[in-house]
Protein 1
Amino acid sequence: MPALVLLGAQWGDEGKGKATDLLGGSVDYVVRYQGGNNAGHTVVVGDQKYALHLLPSGILSPECTPVIGNGVVVDPSVLLSELSGLNERGVDTSKLLLSGNAHIITPYNVTVDKVTERFLGKRKIGTTGRGIGPTYADKINRVGIRVQDLYDESILTQKVEAALDAKNQILTKLYNRRAIAVNQVVEELLGYAAQIEPYVADTVLVLNQALEDNKVVLFEGGQGTLLDIDHGTYPFVTSSNPTAGGACTGAGVGPTKISRVIGILKAYTTRVGAGPFPTELFDEDGEALRRIGHERGVTTGRDRRCGWFDAVIARYATRVNGLTDFFLTKLDVLTGWEEIPVCVAYEIDGKRVEELPYSQTDFHHAKPVYEMLPGWSEDISKAKTFADLPKNAQDYVKALEEMSGAPISAIGVGPGRDETIEINSFL
Ligand code: GDP
Ligand code: IMO
Ligand code: MG
């Protein structure tokens, strides 16, 4: 069973970093396949806490080779500072492999991201401002800069020229900003080239050879299913495919190689940025979830919007990703509620709807239909087996499993590596 995909089943921040890190010791490669440093993955190892943005969470496991695939967008300055930050803390990062086909987030992409958001005003997406959308737009428009371009100055200059031609018109004439000079960008990018070179590789070849040799490869998604550009709550999404198919295109591995797809699912729901969120709470319960769950963005420091568990979304994630398992996280955060509401369906314009509507208008009108499940008050953070959980917590997990359409194979009861109940082994 060599290839696993691990991805977010909701709107991101489900605990992917912790789940990847947990498996990191038993897998040979951990691969990021989409997104960039918009991600914020927290890993807690003993008394050490790491916040990773661009690097795969497997970088903290010495046995494992971390890979940044072709589908990722890479800000070279972030890459280098994340690497040096880890090196200073004694983490060996020398095994990292970076696809020569990955696209570069240029300084002008970051500028365009920020100005576009400002221009959208109250219709803004609430992006992380890291240049993600404009970089993917350049990729699709075929004016992107790739990692390999850093090693041919003439080609790099031509490509930056081509990209800036239209952008400078827009920046100066539409957004009233100063034009960006080609030579300044080229100089900055060339300045990163030598430091990055040791990591650059043909990652597609490496990964396919590894799979042929029966090595275990874990594909780690950024963001989450509902932030997917095709399957999420468009336009309030990110500009890549965090869903399972993205692992194939973003790493160059065929779908026949993927044997297991694990959806990371928070025991309640959170979202950062704008967009519809049917179970969002604006009361003391929402405040309590935020406080107890420490729901604050790892990348932007924004408070996360919080709400109850939404089974309609979980079922949708099972469907569009072909999930084989769930990893339910943060069950411990729900300790102390007498009753816990769970959204089992929506009411849309007076009708009960069981599945996520494809229509944006309908989704904006969706009101949660709640079922009340009995809560528990016992501390569950030391639970090691399912049987250690109080009966009501067991029933909560079983109910979620039944509603969500795939087995819950692990349960998180705390942020640490060992604060996990394993039910079915992932490997
Ligand atoms: P990611 O983006 O999916 O990797 O998730 P984030 O790191 O942005 O947010 C998840 C947060 O929840 C982090 O602070 C984790 O340390 C924490 N976390 C993960 N699993 C659990 C869990 O089971 N219980 C608790 N209390 N915290 C958890
Ligand atoms: P992890 O990997 C939560 C959200 C932003 C915004 C939208 C578009 O930690 O789960 P972008 O900068 O990507 O163009 O912003 O997507 N977003 C995330 N929300 N977790 C993330 O990553 C996110 N990455 C992007 O808040 O709403
Ligand atoms: Mg996160």
Protein 2
Amino acid sequence: MNQKRVRVLKDAPASSGPVVCWMSRDMRAQDNWALLYAQGKALELKQPLHVVFCLVPSFIGATIRHYGFMLKGLAEVERDLARKNIAFSLLAGDPARKLEMFVEQRKASLLVTDFDPLAIKTGWKNDVAAAVDVPFHEVDAHNIVPCWIASPKREFGAYTLRPKINRLLPEFLEEFPALRTHPFGEPSPALKTDWARVRTTLDVDASVGEVDWLTPGPRAARRALDAFIEHKLAAYNSQRNDPSKDGQSNLSPYLHFGQIAPQRVALDVRASSASPPARAAFLEELIVRRELADNFCFYTPDYDNSGCFPAWAARTLADHRRDTREYLYSLEQLDQAATHDHLWNAAQREMVNTGKMHGYMRMYWAKKILEWSPSPEEAMRVAIHLNDRYELDGRDPNGYAGIAWSIGGVHDRAWFPRPVFGKIRYMSFNGCKSKFSIKEYEDKVRRSELRNEK
Ligand code: FAD
Ligand code: FO1
């Protein structure tokens, strides 16, 4: 496999012993470059391969909605790995301590993990690198073009990253090799994780219920991709910005939890019989927009606060800091969808009920939070809190980039100035009314509420 997908986080003398793959972002056995790399190393060493996942019960305020989806997916991963003679262990607690102990107990010769630009993950890896004394390698199993290869710096926008990605796609958008049945170590390891007990003993916020309209796990993810390609891809370009229609792929929860590889999605879409414009429109979002979000979080430490706004946006928002806010809403009022704007309220209710607000409404939703908050800083805090509390795909680079785009002009340009927004792109109720049927969107949200009440 292309070694440019690998970074050395820590070097140490080589030894013999099993290889440990610490799975975190990319929770799947198939199409997983980190796992494929770890297996390659274990085969060279003629050693067993162990996969571990460290369960952290307080991951950035995640609720049972998120852990329920994630744990069901992980149970499937344990089964998929066992079929390949690869043992899976679920650890729970502080990753640095747990990984250090695991590596020590197993006398591992190499520790491999997947890439994630979130600050919390970088912190974990720094701690683990300090704690272990074996080589520690990181593999970008999420981006098609490895984040550090696509660009050495923060990009201004899609227009600056797109040519760099497109030039490198021929090298990196390749078919995956299959995960092999591992010839070293215990054959068909026992499925030892008691997932029911993990679930019941998990101490997480249960006030945001799980969703039932989407089946978690890598198999369901693959079915969702096949269904999207067959039934929706052709109309994607014309429907993706109409929230009253069901034109999106609904892949983001699966992509967020790594239950399907973006590269698998790209390969299958590219090979589909859909028209080139339909394929191109989708691949622009899936590849350029998504990998731009990883670039943003990887190279911008304060990706989740107003410190990340480009200079022009910070200045214009400062110039309008004292403008009168016609409406002001608290986090509680917004959380209760109790504003004067019934379209915004519908979007909030869609997110709370289904765990997935339509992509077009996310822009409008976040921009109104800027308009109705006392400051851009408070708007960022509130938007991130609500997004990560309710969206199944929350706590994701796409979310931090999407909110910073909406509120702080990140990856966007200046527009005509207006109160509060200054030159930040504005979106209005009437603008939405001219683009889609607000009534049909609100009916769709109400139907999802009625389904939930059953
Ligand atoms: P599709 O339209 O089917 O797109 C397919 C895939 O392409 C998505 O899953 C995603 O990986 C990628 N993609 C599409 N649009 C974008 C985009 N604007 N930016 C980055 N990648 C994109 N996405 C999240 O994954 N998690 C979030 O928490 C999140 N919060 C957002 C908040 C705001 C304010 C905004 C403006 C956008 C946010 N997005 C977020 C991006 C986008 O809205 C979602 O990725 C998309 O709606 C997910 O639904 P889908 O997979 O059905 O999308
Ligand atoms: N990653 C982990 O390695 N361990 C966890 O316990 C964990 C919990 C979790 C809960 C909700 C959620 O949205 C993400 C979670 N993640 C966890 C991170 C996930 O693996 C993704 O890497 C990032 O959130 C996306 O970059």
